Amino acid sequence: MTDGTEKDVHTTEGVTERRDKVVARVRSHAGQIARELALLQGGDYGQESFETAAATWTVKYEAGDIQYLRFDPNSGEETYVISTKQPPEPDALERSMDDYGAFIDAYNEYVASFDDVLADVPDEFPAIESAADLVADRDRIVRRIHDVGTEMAGQLQRYDGEYGTYSTTVSGTRWELKWDGREVSYLRVGGSDGTYLLSQYGPPSASELRRLADDVEAFVESFNDEIADLEADLDRVSMRKDE
After folding, report:
1. What is the pLDDT averaged over residues 55-79?
2. pTM exceeding the 0.90 threshold for the entire prediction
3. Residue 90 pLDDT more than 60?
């Protein structure tokens, strides 16, 4: 009497080897589709589905590399022919491979549908107007504002310390000049979220400069008035003791 333990057990090595070879060929072949879809759709990741008479095939890609190829038959269980997890069952792979050629035909038809999509799109456009003159005018005005700001910084250093800020209101808007030594650090209009007429990061836009340039004179006049008031106050100070 035997319990069957003496019988040979068939291995799956041959089946799994053939399965793995098929999957490797499909990964390489469908990987081309993933790369082409990434180029066509203009993104690093995405997915596209293709219909055949027997199933829906879905290709998902990321960074131009295939993430999965899913076979979803009209009847029966779906199969991930390619995935980042385990390989498919041999029977399921065989069924999907029976429709793989139809999937490639569907993909090729999809790509061919774009052949004439850009046929009537113009490839000639109006000449671009140069902004060189505008930029030169802007930079010239900003340099003049910088010269004025530097002169103010020098005066502020003389009577108010090595660094600090001077602020006033012009046309209902806060103007603030920050100085460091005899140099102007910035001239800002409109508070912390405002426009920098002068800064270390570059000039303002031409439109912002046009909007604010007319008020620079009023800003300077306000500064001059404050200096004049301070001088008048100091003139009234006497060092003599009362007799």
Report:
1. 95
2. no
3. yes
Residue 95 phi/psi, 5-degree rounding, is -65, -40
Q: What is the side-by-side order of every strand in the sheet holding 163-170?
A: 163-170, 173-180, 183-189, 195-198
DSSP state string for 168-206: EEETTEEEEEEEETTEEEEEEESSTTSEEEE-TT-PPPH
What is the C-alpha separation between 243 and 232, in angstroms, rounded? 24
Q: Count of CB atoms within 10 A of residue 120's CB? A: 6
Token pair for residue 6? 């003496």
Do 88 and 81 meet the contact criterion of CB atoms below 8 Å apart?
A: yes
69 touches 81 (CB < 8 A): yes
Q: How confident is the model over 156-191, as pLDDT tens digits?
A: 999 899 999 999 999 999 999 999 999 999 999 998
Q: Is 88 helix (H, G, I), strand (E, B) or coil?
A: coil
Q: Give 162's contacts (C-beta < 8 A, 6+ positions apart).
A: 180, 181
Whose structure tokens read 């759709």? 41
Mean pLDDT of the chain: 89
Taking alpha carbons only, the member of 211, 205, 221, 204 closest to residue 146 is 204
What's the confidence (pLDDT) of residue 10?
42
Whether the CB-CB separation of 149 and 198 falls below 8 Å is answered with yes
- Give the Cβ contact number of residue 145 at 10 Å: 21
Residues facing residue 176 across a β-bridge: 167, 188
